[in-house]
Write a structure and sequence with these properties.
Elements (H helix, E strand, L loop, with lengths): L4 E13 L4 E13 L2 E9 L4 H6 L5 H12 L5 E2 L1 H11 L4 E3 L3 E5 L3 H13 L12 H15 L7 E4 L11 E8 L2 E7 L7 H21 L2 E8 L8 H12 L3 E4 L3 H12 L2
Parallel strand pairs: 9-10, 10-11
Antiparallel strand pairs: 1-2, 1-5, 1-6, 2-3, 3-4, 7-8, 8-9
Helix pairs in contact: 5-8, 6-7
């Protein structure tokens, strides 16, 4: 069996308005942990700036393109990860943000991995989705309906991440309740159109766990509720599911919500 290698990926995001928090991914960096520390091993930028221009028609594409040359100067250099990322952030204007880390343990080469990540997050989909009552909203409605039927919906609360991350963090888990020494969390995650939300959840959750456990005095147990049918022949779907599993996130289908809601009824004695 080939040796499995540890890589870490970071997305570069164009964010013209920090208050709104809207962004477009336009680059990806790949790092590997070698014997002498972290090394930037490759970088990819988008070949189609259309999405950036849709978000901000006044975007300076010349400056954004020049960043690729600047980052490539760091390829092959070994230093600690914090120093490397700090230098990257200092080199960028406030318009560019670096995503949380996306770890990958694989037998494949770094080149193959970064090509897949770039295709997933930087390329514009060829087919546009038609409007339909699908995606996260449909999963969320199923969750709410089943919790309501079980008589526990009034006993559940959305759980904001802000107390366990940074002031102003808008993210919140859809539903949560305390049972004994656990804080049970449930969040709707759609992956049919894009796996971005699943990957970001997997990247952020491990950092929230120890802080929530310390502040709230309970062990978080997160369940991500996904579509009933996911096309796992798509590499990005497998990638996102694997990341969530590595982050200790339980994965359930929307069809499992009846059993989940019934368990909540028993535990909450509703």
């Amino acid at each position: 069996m080939a040796e499995r290698k540890q890589f870490e990926f970071f997305l570069l995001r164009y964010m013209p308005d920090v208050v709104k928090g809207e962004f477009v991914n336009f680059g990806v960096m790949a790092l590997a942990n070698g014997p002498n520390g972290f090394e930037l091993i490759d970088v990819r930028f988008t070949k189609d700036w259309g999405r950036v221009l849709c978000l901000d028609p006044q975007a300076d594409l010349e400056i954004l393109s020049a960043l690729e040359k600047e980052i490539r100067q760091e390829v092959g250099r070994t230093k600690d990860q914090v120093t490397l990322l700090k230098k990257m952030e200092d080199s960028f204007s406030n318009l560019v943000q670096i995503s949380p880390v996306m770890p990958s343990l694989t037998e494949r080469t770094a080149l193959a991995e970064i090509e897949d990540v770039a295709r997933m997050f930087l390329e514009t989909p060829k087919l546009r989705r038609t409007r339909e009552p699908a995606g996260r909203q449909k999963i969320l409605e199923t969750m709410r309906d089943e919790f309501d039927k079980a008589g526990v919906l009034p006993l559940l609360n959305a759980v904001p991440a802000e107390p366990y991350t940074k002031t102003g963090d808008p993210f919140e888990f859809d539903f949560g309740y305390r049972f004994g020494g656990e804080i049970k969390l449930f969040h709707a995650v759609s992956m049919k159109g894009s796996v971005d939300s699943a990957v970001m959840l997997a990247a952020r959750y491990p950092k929230i766990v120890p802080v929530m456990e310390r502040i709230a005095g309970g062990a978080p147990m997160l369940t991500a509720v996904v579509e009933n049918e996911l096309n796992q022949t798509r590499s990005e779907i497998r990638f996102a599911l694997g990341m969530m599993e590595e982050s200790k996130i339980r994965i359930a289908r929307a069809a499992d919500m009846k059993e989940i809601a019934e368990l909540a009824r028993v535990e909450l004695r509703a």
